[in-house]
Amino acid sequence: MRIAVLSDIHSNLVALDAVLADIGSVDAVWHLGDVVGYGPEPDAVVERLAGIGAVGVRGNHDAAAAGGPEIEAFNPEARRAMEWTRKRIAPVTRDWLAALPERLIVDDASLVHGSLRDPTWEYVTSAAIAKASLDVLTTPVGLHGHTHVPMAWVRAGSRVRGAAAGTDARLSYDGRPSLLNPGSVGQPRDGDPRASYLVLDADARVASWHRVAYDIEAVVAAMRSVELPIRLAERLRHGL
Ligand code: ZN
Q: Whole domain around residue 115: which residue ranges?
């Protein structure tokens, strides 16, 4: 079984479509939240994911878009983009976002947005934080996003090792409890502006990371035209 794992799409339909075209044939698409927020096309992104039968979890931006108090914790630009998103989205989009669970176990994988310890907010940015999630992992692999940085955290004996997952990185998680981050489709933050995603070969228990270029200028122009914060548009050019 071949599964595409997407995270932090952030209303970036151009990036999502580039990724879906690049993936080719898969048996399932899973997403790890932050489907909306920041970008210009929340309704179209949700419609696309719903159309392909993607299953997944709720991120902090999805919770805020559905009306949750999470918006109070946003920085000023994220908040402006979220207020725009709230006004703009159709009821069907809001309902779809509101129905996303905080966590989901599918087949051999545990899906969350932030971490297994705090699925909405915790950023897994160190081996100690990753270990707290691996300590409560009940499936062979955990999948998370939120940092927008592709990473693998792997238990090795009593220790946890982290490794940045560069282009075409591969990892066997067979017999090695792992917490994997696909990076971000719609707003990468590892210095590479290309959309990032992960593919799981669930039978062999091998993960592979992939990058795909998309028309960033089209998204920047769309964000300008609807008056989303300009800094949120310009950061897409730099992958930061
Ligand atoms: Zn995000």
A: 2-237
